């Protein structure tokens, strides 16, 4: 029966079990590893003391007083955490930033006197301030203690490891940083405690995650690559721990865990330190769930994270960072149900805003944490990013009204494993309903010949497919064994595990690391973030080595398989099995301290049916021994390698699985066997055996008859003969499997629609037409039934956009085939009614659910997103009138009236389109239109629609609504045309009203520098120290008309391709190519990609698309006022100060929380007196339009959209290819650059290529200047629309800056003073300038 817990689970050490107080005389700690770290310390202080013990009579002996050296920290925390919700501190980084806003804190201050001559920039290294500016850090500590009322504060040591300090070349200072960070906290705590000894304050040594990860590969190409090892992490953490304890820490906190393997290394280091020192220092552990998926960055759920680290017996576990309190609620609730120790939360002050800041005020944050207190989930609370002492004060005051979380009752110990997900073994039932843990055997060289061949040739990718299949077939745990004399087992185990942990479908289950050599399983264990089982150890190595191996596994938190071997050999009989297992159990539990629930005995499943009398009773021996071992070894598990049992009948699967079925049925249900290494896919229930086979198996397993083996051999011969006959084509008739092609034509059409199969659609439609009375019945019947299923599946997230488009292709082809028959029928009906058939209305649309007009607004040529929405709506029986691109307001409204549509949809990609949409909305209101207006496209947003568009056209009758993507379009349109319209529109109106209020309130709260002040704080590059790039090898214009599609294919970035099709993988399968592994969208993404490759190859083969572009490189300098870039025809013109033209720039004005400069693109170009240059290009992919027309004529929306998507990829790849050619050859400023395609896409090169109309220069009119310089229209045929959209749509243009300090940035909103200046410099009328800059104005224009 469960019993009430009096304290959290205790660590293994004697000091912890006896609650021995820490003596705080650290100078006594002289272990060689501790002494070695102190010996190399950089500390320059001569007054350093390592001892912090206090006189035993300093304060009274009763709680809540505490005296170091007298009282047990463990007992104190238990008393504190069970009597009140304890208060932790808030963000250190936020407080340092806030200090910097009020005081100078630049590079010079970070360095201080000690580091004034440091060799690299250190601004941002907050941890070093404990040395260089100790008064700042101590001041922050005291604010949290005095204002926030914190019971304990974390040290300023989050990044104080040799690994993280490598960024600042300060690895040698790791010990000192930790020592000083803790010492300052110790001083602050003691000063505040002295003022009120009834509220002692404690130092929590903060151990951060480092900036490297043991579980995640830094290389897309090599999933087995790592930039840190477990042993390196242990080493760096151990040094940090020595410094923290020497500095006076009371508690150690491993925090902000995004990769549990890093945390396991830190906890291992903590354990080693506590063992070497003999101290009992409580340990807290805090994980970080990176998003609403509720998983760490390395993919674990909160429960799996806890299961992976609970072996370290932390006193308190919880969550911090990444999310605000409100977003943590479901994950904290789940943890509160499983965590056996105390629980904490220190959340962010909400989610970061667009500028990276945090908006929650103290009262808001306290209210957000209230739900934790109300539900009794927490024992400690604090704050993370964005929180301040005022936030902590508000949270403390809120928490005082509530009781802390009660420790859960202590029940029966259970084995609790983890991969990416957790697994309580005692609660498991397998796919046959048996209380049995299936351990998959096929990733074992002895269990699968196919796996062995793959491992021998190093094909780890295909080996992963075997692992995935094991999990799919019902394996709860994956056995990994690479034992073979011809294989480097150590290397193979490490590589397999490192790859496996990056495969979510594999690593979601725990691993059983299986090897005959202990060093091999240990190597695998150090790459596994979850809680594994190690298979195996035994007494055959002798008692001392057995205990040594078991101790190491206990420290790493692994469960263990213990074989029934001892110094004399293998146990074969029942008494020997029991004796060896009981002896092993007593050593493990009583001497090693191994958790009994983590012990799995393998009493040796030995082969029966060999014909040898001494083997005949092995089945009985195992089953009987299992029962006795379970009785004598409480909480231990029993396992076995089941394939050994029937080894004599190998090659005849039916016989083997029948024997296993009988054996397992009795071993599991009657004796308590609960684990086995099996091939889950081939397991049988005993009820599936025919009577003859059942009797034979019973006789063999239980040794009931003398001829049991002979009988089984006869059955084996019969089965083998049947197998041979089948191989030769004889044997029993195999029933033909049914196919969907055997369905009736109506069902075939439905199946074809749902599955997007167009191959047979015309003959199937003809058959269905012949069965129907009228052609329309085929559309209204099977075709619409199929499309309704498609719509439902899409809406439920069970079908994805590419599938929907394929379904639409089938639908269109079927309807196109039926149309002539329908028209003929209607004309005949008119003749029968005496009417003129020439009056027949070919555009009759009365049978649709609604009519929608779609248009890309004036000046914009982009329509791929609009086309997708049109197809999705068409799939749901809406008649879509797509009137094309560059549609004027007049045309849109004229066509809307002509077609009498129910809804109008506007699309746009470029920012001028936003203003055009406002124009259309105003005109619709002016003319009295009543249709709802839908807004969509890449540049649009819900906020812009709410603030700029809906005030001009939003009533309950005709709302203006933003539609995020195609998947939302059906819901929006159907809601607007349903009886629930008023309720739906009312909710939208309320939401938009709130957004407008927030937007304008935000403008009031937002501060902007004057234009003059922003110019003063510009980026000032020292062009003498960092000179401009050399003169380009080829000045002037160069036309590119010989670059082929094949040339640019290697430069394609496929991620935007999947975004176009609205396919998005979830962590850890975001992005190409990991999206193929995503559980939800992976298979569809792979099909889509294969289709894309097929069309891509076809396009390349028949040259239906081609590339052309022009490059220009010219002398350039900053203008006199520094805001623009003057372009010169040649050096003579530069010397004469006679620019050909000028590119005008825009500068950031929104106030920054940091000291970062206020950027303008002109900052990256040198002023007059320097020979600087600027590049530019315009490129396009031609031929897409003709291909789109071809597919449209074939009613093939799928390939129509595919062609547009590929054209976009081709031209973007062309731009990447060209930019590289400029850097390496045409300009030549980076001629030694040697980057692969991945690094190119990650922008690891020098220089940038921003485009007019994008964030760093949001004014599209600057394209006109570029077009004139490049002669783009004349030389390439690339034109500009009246809104400066490039035509063809698959076009890219950019300015090219070469200076290594140039960077991408967003101008953001700007003020009226800059707009006035900009209009003058551009020689534009002010109203015209404001129109083009409308999306970024921080004021309302007239």
Question: Overview of this structure, please?
Answer:
Helix 30 (864-875) packs across helix 34 (966-976). The chain is α/β, with parallel strands linked by helices and 1342 residues long. Helices cover 43% and strands 12% of the residues.
Please supply descriptive tags for the structure shown above.
single chain, 1342 residues, alpha/beta, eight-stranded parallel β-sheet, 47 helices
Shape from CA axes? globular
N-end to C-end Cα span = 76 Å
Largest sheet: 8 strands, parallel
Helix content: 40-55%
Brief write-up:
The protein is an alpha/beta fold and 1342 residues long. The chain is globular and about 95 Å long.
Indicate the topology.
Elements lengths: L13 H4 L14 H8 L33 H11 L2 E2 L4 H11 L4 H5 L17 H4 L1 H13 L5 E3 L19 H22 L6 E6 L22 H17 L4 E7 L2 H18 L5 E5 L14 H8 L6 E9 H12 L5 E7 L13 H13 L5 E4 L5 H11 L16 E3 L3 E3 L12 E4 L8 H8 L3 H13 L4 E5 L7 H12 L3 H4 L3 E4 L3 H8 L7 E5 L5 H14 L2 E5 L1 E2 L2 E2 L3 H19 L6 E4 L15 H15 L4 E2 L14 H17 L5 E4 L12 H11 L6 H20 L17 H11 L5 H11 L3 H21 L5 H32 L17 E7 L7 H12 L2 E5 L6 H11 L3 E5 L4 H15 L6 E4 L5 H8 L10 E3 L3 H11 L4 H25 L5 H6 L19 E5 L4 H4 L6 H6 L21 H21 L3 E13 L5 E4 L3 H5 L5 E4 L27 E11 L1 H10 L3 H30 L10 H5 L20 H9 L1 H5 L2 E2 L5 E2 L3 E6 L15 H11 L3 H7 L10
Parallel strand pairs: 1-8, 2-3, 3-4, 4-5, 5-6, 6-7, 7-8, 11-12, 11-20, 12-13, 13-14, 14-15, 15-18, 18-19, 21-22, 21-23, 23-24, 24-25
Antiparallel strand pairs: 9-10, 16-17, 26-27, 27-28, 27-30, 28-29, 30-33, 31-32
């Amino acid at each position: 029966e469960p019993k009430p817990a009096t304290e959290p689970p205790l660590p293994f050490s004697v000091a912890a079990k006896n609650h021995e107080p820490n003596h705080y005389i650290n100078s006594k700690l002289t272990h060689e590893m501790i002494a070695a770290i102190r010996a190399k310390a950089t500390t320059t202080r001569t007054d350093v003391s390592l001892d912090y013990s206090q006189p035993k009579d300093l304060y009274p002996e009763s709680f809540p007083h505490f005296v170091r050296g007298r009282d047990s920290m463990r007992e104190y925390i238990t008393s504190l955490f069970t009597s009140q919700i304890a208060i932790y501190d808030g963000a250190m980084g936020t407080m340092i930033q806030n200090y910097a806003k009020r005081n100078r804190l630049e590079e010079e201050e970070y360095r201080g006197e000690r580091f004034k001559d440091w060799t690299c920039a250190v601004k941002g290294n907050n941890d070093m301030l404990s040395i260089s500016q100790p008064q700042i850090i101590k001041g922050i500590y005291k604010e949290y203690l005095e204002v926030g009322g914190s019971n304990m504060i974390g040290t300023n040591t989050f990044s104080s490891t040799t690994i993280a300090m490598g960024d600042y070349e300060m690895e040698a200072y790791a010990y000192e940083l930790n020592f000083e960070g803790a010492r300052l906290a110790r001083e602050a705590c003691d000063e505040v405690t002295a003022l009120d000894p009834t509220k002692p304050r404690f130092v929590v040594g903060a151990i951060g995650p480092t900036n490297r990860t043991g579980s995640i590969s830094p290389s897309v190409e090599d999933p087995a690559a790592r930039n840190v090892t477990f042993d390196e992490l242990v080493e760096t953490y151990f040094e940090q721990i020595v410094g923290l304890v020497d500095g006076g820490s009371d508690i150690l906190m491993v925090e902000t865990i995004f990769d549990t393997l890093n945390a396991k290394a830190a906890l291992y280091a903590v354990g080693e330190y506590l063992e070497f020192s003999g101290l009992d220092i409580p340990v807290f552990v805090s994980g970080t769930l990176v998003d609403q998926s509720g998983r760490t960055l390395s993919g674990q759920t909160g429960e799996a994270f806890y299961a992976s680290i609970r072996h370290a017996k932390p006193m308190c576990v919880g969550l911090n960072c990444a999310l605000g309190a409100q977003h943590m609620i479901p994950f904290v609730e789940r943890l509160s149900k499983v965590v056996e120790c105390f629980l904490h939360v220190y959340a962010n002050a909400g989610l970061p805003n667009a500028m990276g800041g945090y908006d929650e005020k103290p009262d808001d944050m306290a209210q957000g944490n209230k739900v934790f207190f109300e539900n009794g989930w927490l024992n400690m609370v604090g704050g993370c990013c964005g929180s301040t002492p005022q936030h902590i004060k508000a949270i403390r005051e809120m928490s005082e009204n509530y009781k802390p979380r009660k420790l859960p009752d202590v029940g029966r110990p259970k084995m609790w494993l983890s991969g990416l997900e957790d697994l309580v073994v005692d609660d498991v039932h397998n796919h046959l309903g048996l209380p049995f843990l299936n351990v998959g055997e096929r990733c074992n060289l002895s269990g699968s010949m196919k796996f062995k061949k793959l491992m021998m040739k190093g094909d780890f990718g295909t080996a992963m497919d075997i692992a995935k299949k094991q999990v799919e077939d019902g394996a709860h745990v994956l056995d990994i064994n690479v034992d073979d004399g011809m294989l480097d087992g150590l290397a193979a185990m490490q590589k397999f595990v490192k790859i496996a942990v990056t495969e979510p479908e594999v690593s979601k289950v725990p691993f059983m690391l299986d090897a005959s050599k202990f060093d091999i399983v240990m190597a695998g264990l150090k790459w596994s973030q979850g809680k594994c089982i190690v298979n195996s150890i035994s007494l055959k190595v002798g008692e001392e080595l057995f205990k040594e191996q078991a101790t190491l596994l206990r420290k790493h938190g692994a469960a263990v398989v213990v074989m029934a071997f001892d110094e004399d050999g293998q146990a074969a009989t029942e008494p020997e099995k029991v004796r060896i297992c009981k002896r092993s159990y007593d050593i493990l539990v009583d001497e090693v301290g191994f958790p009994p629930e983590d012990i799995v005995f393998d009493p040796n499943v030995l082969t029966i049916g060999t014909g040898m009398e001494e083997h005949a009773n092995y089945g009985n021996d195992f089953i009987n021994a299992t029962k006795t071992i379970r009785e004598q070894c409480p909480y231990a598990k029993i396992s076995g390698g089941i394939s050994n049992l029937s080894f004599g009948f190998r090659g005849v699967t039916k016989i083997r699985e029948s024997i296993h079925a009988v054996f397992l049925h009795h071993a599991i249900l009657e004796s308590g066997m609960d684990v086995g290494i099996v091939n889950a896919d081939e397991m049988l229930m005993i009820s599936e055996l025919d009577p003859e086979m059942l009797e034979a198996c019973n006789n063999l397993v239980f040794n009931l008859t003398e001829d049991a083996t002979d009988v089984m051999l006869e059955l084996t011969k019969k089965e083998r003969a049947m197998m041979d006959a089948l191989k030769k084509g004889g044997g029993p008739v195999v029933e033909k499997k049914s196919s969907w092609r055997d369905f009736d034509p109506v069902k075939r059409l439905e199946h074809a629609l749902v599955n997007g199969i167009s191959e047979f659609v015309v003959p199937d439609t003809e058959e269905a037409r012949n069965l129907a009375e009228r052609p329309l019945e085929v559309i209204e019947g099977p075709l619409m039934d199929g499309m309704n299923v498609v719509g439902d599946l899409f809406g439920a997230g069970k079908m994805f956009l590419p599938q929907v488009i394929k379904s639409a292709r089938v639908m269109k082809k079927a309807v196109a085939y039926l149309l002539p028959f329908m028209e003929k029928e209607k004309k005949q009906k008119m003749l029968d009614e005496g009417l003129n058939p020439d009056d027949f209305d070919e555009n009759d649309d009365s049978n649709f659910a609604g009519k929608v007009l779609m248009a890309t607004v004036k000046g914009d040529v982009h329509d791929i997103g609009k086309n997708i929405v049109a197809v999705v709506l068409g799939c749901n029986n809406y008649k879509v009138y797509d009137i094309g691109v560059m549609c004027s307001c007049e045309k849109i409204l004229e066509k809307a009236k002509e077609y009498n549509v129910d809804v109008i949809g506007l699309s746009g990609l470029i920012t001028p389109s936003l203003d055009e949409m406002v124009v259309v909305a105003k005109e619709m209101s002016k003319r009295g239109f009543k249709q709802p207006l839908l807004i969509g496209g890449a540049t649009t947003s819900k906020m812009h629609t709410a603030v700029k568009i809906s005030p001009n056209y939003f009533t309950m009758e005709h709302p203006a609504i933003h539609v995020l993507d195609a998947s939302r379009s059906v819901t929006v349109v159907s809601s607007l045309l349903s009886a629930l319209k008023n309720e739906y529109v009312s909710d939208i109106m309320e939401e938009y009203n709130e957004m407008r209020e927030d937007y304008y309130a935000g403008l009031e709260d937002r501060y902007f520098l004057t234009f003059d002040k922003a110019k003063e704080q510009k980026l000032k590059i020292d062009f003498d120290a960092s000179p401009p790039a050399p003169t380009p090898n080829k000045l002037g214009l160069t036309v590119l008309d010989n670059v082929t599609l094949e040339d640019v294919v290697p430069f394609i970035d496929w991620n935007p391709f999947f975004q176009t099709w609205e396919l998005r993988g979830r962590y850890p399968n975001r992005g190409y190519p990991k999206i193929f592994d995503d559980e939800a969208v992976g298979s569809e993404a792979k099909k889509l990609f294969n289709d894309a490759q097929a069309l891509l190859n076809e396009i390349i083969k028949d040259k239906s698309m081609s590339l052309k572009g022009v490059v220009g490189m010219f002398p350039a300098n900053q203008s006199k006022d520094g805001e623009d870039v003057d372009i010169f025809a040649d050096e003579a013109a530069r010397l004469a100060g006679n620019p050909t033209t000028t590119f005008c720039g825009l500068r950031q004005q929104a106030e920054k929380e940091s000291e970062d400069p206020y950027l303008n693109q002109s900052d990256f170009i040198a002023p007059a007196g320097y020979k600087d240059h600027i590049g530019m290009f315009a490129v396009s992919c031609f031929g897409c339009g003709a291909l789109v027309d071809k597919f449209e004529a074939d009613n093939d929306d799928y390939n129509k959209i595919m062609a547009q998507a590929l054209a976009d990829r081709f031209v973007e790849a062309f731009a990447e290819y060209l930019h590289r050619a400029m850097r390496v050859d045409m300009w030549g400023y980076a001629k030694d650059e040697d980057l692969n395609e991945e690094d190119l896409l990650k922008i690891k090169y020098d220089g940038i290529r921003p485009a007019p109309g994008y964030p760093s220069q949001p004014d599209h009119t600057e394209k006109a200047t570029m077009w004139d310089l490049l002669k783009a229209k004349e030389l390439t045929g690339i034109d500009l629309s009246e809104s400066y959209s490039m035509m063809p749509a698959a076009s890219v243009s950019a300015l090219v800056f070469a200076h290594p300090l140039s960077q991408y940035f967003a101008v953001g909103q700007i003020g009226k003073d800059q707009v006035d200046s900009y209009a003058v410099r551009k020689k534009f009328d002010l109203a015209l300038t404001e129109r083009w800059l409308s999306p970024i104005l921080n004021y309302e224009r007239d």
